[in-house]
């Protein structure tokens, strides 16, 4: 379970809010029960419930079970898509181990507002589910031209293009790297030109079919991780 408090041998954190609701109401934890906690800073710790109230619990830290995880330095830059599909991108990219999630606003992006709080909650849930002890960073949304203007030259940007490109598996782009996928309507011709002008960009194809935006994001992430993410 994620807890936003620095954990350590001497910590006696109090858990409240939705986490307490989950532990008390769903898991039915009582005093003396064990619980695994992580804080995104110091790794994972085994704790014991010291006191279970109605809406909060106090836990006692027993020992560290895992250090803070180091994930491969892969960013997923994605045009936000609608609700359930965006949820899917966030959940699966977190499970697959991306280091950073970067929403990119493109000319054909139809989502009006990126709900950072909702995404942050999904990131935490996905980390809890898959046992990841370091949350991926969630960057503020940025427009595509700005993203490219500030792009760090040493980081290859694998631009997934349904119009063609080198087969994804043939491109050797170890960390630090990033993947870029477009919105429901794809990238415009002007954006393609802008992308191909950027020296860090490598245009990649994910097969002959036009994939849903979320399929492309996750397929590319999975392919990269299979090769470079140990
Ligand atoms: N209309 C569908 C939707 O609503 O999801 C398809 C959208 S597709 C145009 C969205 C993005 O997925 C593209 O901009 C591209 O980044 C990526 N993509 C889809 N198929 C691809 C392929 N075969 N190769 C590379 N990238 C692909």
Describe the structure.
This protein has 230 residues and is α/β, with parallel strands linked by helices. It contains six helices and twelve strands. It has helices at 17-26, 83-96, 116-130, 144-149, 189-196, 213-228, and strands spanning 14-15, 34-38, 44-52, 57-66, 74-78, 100-105, 137-138, 142-143, 156-160, 166-167, 177-181, 201-205. The strands form two sheets. Strands 5, 6, 7, 8, 9, 10, 11 and 12 form an eight-stranded parallel beta sheet that branches. A four-stranded antiparallel beta sheet has the order 1-4-3-2. Strand 2 (34-38) and strand 3 (44-52) form a beta hairpin. Helix 2 packs across helix 3 (116-130) and helix 2 (83-96) packs parallel to helix 6 (213-228). The longest helix is centred in the C-terminal third of the chain and has 16 residues, at 213-228. The protein is elongated. The two termini are 24 Å apart. The model has no long low-confidence stretch (mean pLDDT 94). It binds S-adenosylmethionine. Residues 160-162, 181-182, 184, 186-187, 205-207, 209-213, 216 line the site of S-adenosylmethionine (SAM). Residues 73-224 form the Ribosomal RNA small subunit methyltransferase E methyltransferase domain. One of its GO terms (biological process) is rRNA base methylation. It comes from Sphingopyxis macrogoltabida. Keywords: Cytoplasm, Methyltransferase, rRNA processing, S-adenosyl-L-methionine, Transferase. InterPro entries: Alpha/beta_knot_MTases, PUA-like_sf, RsmE, RsmE_MTase_dom, RsmE_PUA-like, tRNA_m1G_MTases_N.
């Amino acid at each position: 379970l994620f807890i936003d408090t620095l954990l350590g041998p001497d910590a006696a954190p109090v858990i409240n809010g939705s986490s307490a609701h989950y532990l008390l109401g769903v898991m039915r934890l009582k005093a003396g029960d064990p619980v695994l906690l992580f804080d995104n800073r110091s790794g994972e710790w085994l704790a014991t419930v010291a006191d279970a109230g109605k809406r909060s619990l106090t836990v006692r830290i027993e020992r560290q079970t895992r250090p803070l995880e180091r994930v491969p330095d892969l960013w997923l830059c994605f045009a936000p898509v609608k609700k359930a599909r965006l949820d899917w991108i966030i959940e699966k990219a977190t499970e697959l181990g991306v280091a950073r999630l970067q929403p990119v606003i493109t000319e054909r992006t139809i989502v009006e507002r990126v709900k950072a709080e909702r995404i942050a909650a999904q990131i935490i849930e996905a980390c809890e589910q898959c046992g990841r002890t370091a949350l991926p960073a969630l960057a503020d949304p940025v427009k595509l031209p700005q993203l490219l203007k500030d792009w760090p030259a040493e980081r290859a940007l694998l631009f997934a293009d349904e119009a063609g490109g080198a087969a994804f598996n043939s491109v050797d782009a170890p960390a630090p790297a990033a993947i870029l996928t477009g919105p429901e309507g794809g990238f415009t011709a002007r954006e393609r030109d802008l992308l191909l002008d950027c020296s860090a960009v490598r245009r990649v194809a994910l097969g002959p079919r036009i994939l849903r935006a979320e399929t492309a994001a996750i397929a590319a992430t999975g392919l990269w991780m299979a090769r470079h993410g140990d």
